[in-house]
From TrEMBL:
One of its GO terms (cellular component) is membrane. InterPro entries: Iontro_rcpt_C, Solute-binding_3/MltF_N. This is Amino acid ABC transporter substrate-binding protein. It comes from Dorea longicatena. Residues 26-42 have a biased composition (Basic and acidic residues). Residues 53-277 form the Ionotropic glutamate receptor C-terminal domain.
Length: 277
């Protein structure tokens, strides 16, 4: 009987100890979580990543956000300036320079953590959120329909694309929209938006779907183009541009806080005015 009582008492003591241990750990966890959730200020993050090297990617094929200058070698655009501003604020270095690749390779590299960060007018889609992290939205865009004005197909808006041949760039918000909503159209999927534009210029397709700023930029910078935008922007709010961060990169909080700072202090508005208007 005494043995039973002793056993019960020992069991109760063990439970009490375990309970205290869990309580202590839980308290530590919540304190750690609340620290993680603390809003980082500009003072908190200034030069907080000095000595850190990040592998950074962009597309180089999506003006005005990332494209090559007239020399064909220098990457310029909204996103390149944004990356530079993030560097100035956080103090990190770019390992080997910004790498340019098409969207499919860029998103794959981020999802497989071959890159730490990507800035290329990347849309924070639900599918991408499963394999990479995204900062706050620094720019939002809808899609537009582009047609060849020398080709009379009667297309005045996205509602007129039924039965038409439509070109999109692989892996973009336009591609996602067309795949989900244009089942009665024939899709021509391109690795780059450049070849999609060429296809429309040559009348091989009836229309191109593209983000509004990208379409405007192409028309503005291609004087001999026959392309024009028809109808209003659509799918608005579904193309939020964010900086993408690999799930294995431990500096997400700092990068996101830096993006918030650049939005709050008007830097992103200045970049939009410089590159998109």
């Amino acid at each position: 009987m005494k043995k039973k009582i002793v056993a019960v008492m020992m069991w109760a003591a063990m439970v009490a100890m375990l309970g205290a241990g869990c309580g202590s750990k839980s308290s530590d966890d919540s304190s750690s979580k609340s620290e993680t959730k603390k809003t980082l200020t500009e003072d908190d993050i200034k030069d907080s990543m000095k000595g850190v090297k990040l592998k950074v990617g962009t597309s180089g094929l999506f003006g005005p956000f990332s494209y090559y200058d007239e020399d064909g070698k220098t990457l310029i655009g909204y996103d390149l300036d944004l990356i530079s501003d993030l560097q100035d604020l956080l103090g990190f270095e770019i390992d080997g320079g910004v790498q340019a690749m098409d969207y499919s390779a860029l998103t794959t590299s981020l999802s497989e953590s071959k890159l730490d960060m990507g800035a290329a007018a990347l849309c924070a889609t639900d599918e991408r959120k499963e394999v990479m992290n995204f900062t706050d939205v620094y720019c939002d865009s809808g899609q537009v329909v582009m047609v060849n004005k020398t080709n009379d197909e009667g297309i005045k808006s996205v509602d007129d694309l039924k039965g038409k041949k439509v070109a999109v760039e692989k892996g973009t918000a336009s591609h996602t929209y067309a795949s989900k909503n244009l089942s009665d159209s024939e899709l021509e999927v391109h690795d780059t938006i450049t070849t999609a534009y060429e296809s429309l210029e040559q009348k091989k397709v009836d229309a191109v779907i593209q983000d509004g700023p990208g379409a405007s930029f192409y028309i503005k910078t291609t004087p001999d183009s026959n392309l024009e935008v028809v109808g209003d922007e659509f799918n608005q709010g579904q193309a939020p541009y964010c900086v993408a961060v690999s799930k294995e990169c431990k500096y997400y909080d700092e990068i996101n806080a830096a993006v918030k700072v650049l939005i709050k202090n008007g830097t992103t508005d200045e970049l939009y005015a410089k590159w998109c208007e």
